[in-house]
Amino acid sequence: MANRSSSRAPNIIVPFVLFSLIAIACAEVFFEERFDDGWEKRWVKSDWKKDENVAGEWNYTSGKWNGDPNDKGIQTSEDYRFYAISAEFPEFSNKDKALVFQFSVKHEQKLDCGGGYMKLLNGEVDQKKFGGDTPYSIMFGPDICGYSTKKVHAILNYNGTNHLLKKDVPCETDQLTHVYTFILRPDATYSILIDNDEKKSGSLYSDWDLLPPKKIKDPEAKKPEDWDDKEYIPDPEDKKPEGYDDIPEEIPDPDAKKPEDWDDEEDGEWTAPTIPNPEYKGPWKPKKIKNPNYQGKWKAPMIDNPDFKDDPELYVYPNLKYVGVELWQVKSGTLFDNVLVCDDVEYAKKLAEETWGKNKDAEKAAFEEAEKKREEEEAKADPVDSDAEDEEDDDADDADDADAEVKKDDTAEIETETESDDVKDEL
Ligand SMILES: *[C@@H]1O[C@H](CO)[C@@H](O)[C@H](O)[C@H]1NC(C)=O
Ligand SMILES: *[C@@H]1O[C@H](CO)[C@@H](O)[C@H](O)[C@H]1NC(C)=O
User: What is its main location (predicted)?
Assistant: First the structure.
């Protein structure tokens, strides 16, 4: 109302100011963490995996390369470790509004196996015990392992069961900061953005199996007896040519000659060896023609699924209350920053621009500088390699790859263990 009446005001500046005030008032930020001073009071490090001595430490840092050394986040700092940390915010429900979940992540370690995702949790959580088995509402973000897994996870918990996104959304694999955004709307649509660029969008109904399918094949339907599903049939007009069966399969080799020293009396009568007859075409078969009565492949008709019951609140998470990171990492160096939970897509977009967008060019330049230095130092440390031709460099790369493979195998067991937890959850 205020907006409408003010738009009639003669001064055009007034409605503009009012409108932006309303826009800001409408945006609700449930949680925003830029990891400035005091972040440690807001986040609780879990004791999960501590007694097994495999709980990793976080490093509060802007990383080895960055666009602003004062803009810090939290980075995994130990290899082969589990990480679990979470923060609480005032409980809310996303009913009737958009839910925007966004954060930035940078894998400085050239991640070969590990996650870079975050979770939204609901209800009451003992943050000191937060770990891989703690139920969550949404798990979202990149996951990399070996050559096969390089994807954005978007796992939704519905009615106590975790459901994986059925669509493939590749994640970023370089060593720079990227912003991952998950948007869930009251019309049960979603979008996944990387660096403010939409990579995937669709419906909760089709891209996850949250509910049973709306339509199913009629289980009662049967293929009619007289259904003709032969696409080709023998041509009834085609006739076997006269004399076809008289063509022999083999004939005497016309090029064979009786050897000069062949003695009919001693060696018997000479006969030429046989060869396959080029005229012989095998047993006669009529030509195939398109079946004029072809009815197509039979398909059962689709009917309404009696087990489908729509849930107009499919997208609703009624008591979201925590955001957390729970990861296993083979190689550490993943840096999280600028975590946002809000109901305003534009606000999230702006935050990404003001942080990642502002710093990305300087970060890239710093990264390239660091890479150059690293290569120079490697060359100094190994002068043979620096004199060597490209060939030898390739060998060195191969050795690195092999090393990564071995590490992957080492951790395969632990990895499947954590993976199977997720799978278990899904069942
Ligand atoms: C934290 O990160 C900085 C920047 O990369 C690094 O110099 C420092 O050694 C790290 N500290 C730990 C404990 O890993
Ligand atoms: C929710 O889960 C319960 C128990 O597992 C089940 O009986 C019910 O049908 C489920 N509801 C929906 C909408 O999936």
Answer: endoplasmic reticulum
Total structural domains in the chain? 2
Indicate which ligand has the atom closest to the C-alpha of 211: 2
Quick check: 12 pLDDT over 80? no
Measured from the Cα of 212, ligand 2's closest atom is: 14
**279 labelled as ligand-binding?**
no
- Checking if the pLDDT of 330 tops 70, the result is yes
Chain centroid to Cα 322, Å, comes to 24
Q: Can you list the alpha helix ranges (DSSP code H) found in 208-357?
A: 264-267, 345-352
Q: Which of 29, 32, 28 is nearest to 340 (CA)?
A: 32
Residue in 77, 336, 363 to alter for ligand 1 test, most ligand atoms within 8 A of Cβ:
77
Residue 123 belongs to some domain of the structure: yes
Ligand 1: list residues with CB < 6 Å. 59, 61, 63-64, 77
* Pick from 19-28, 94-103, 353-362: least confident: 19-28
pLDDT of 75 above 70: yes
For residues 334 and 318, is the Cβ–Cβ distance under 8 A? no
Q: Indicate which atom in ligand 2 lies nearest the CA of residue 211.
A: 14
Residue nearest to atom 10 of ligand 2 (CA): 159
pLDDT per residue over 120-177, tens digit each?
999 889 999 999 999 999 999 999 988 888 999 999 999 999 999 999 999 999 999 9
CB proximity list for 192: less than 8 A, separation 6 or greater: 152, 154, 169, 180, 181, 182, 183, 198, 199, 200, 201
Segment 275-289, tens digit of pLDDT? 999 989 899 999 999
Ligand closest to CA 64: 1
Domain extent for 31: 26-214+316-343
Question: pLDDT at residue 10 above 50?
Answer: no
Strands 250-252, 177-184: parallel, antiparallel or unpaired by DSSP? unpaired
CA 9–ligand 1 middle distance (angstroms): 57
Question: In sequence order, what are the beta bridge partners of 82?
Answer: 55, 328
Distance 361 CA to ligand 1 centre (A): 22
Q: Is 294 annotated as a binding residue?
A: no
CATH of the domain at 141: 2.60.120.200
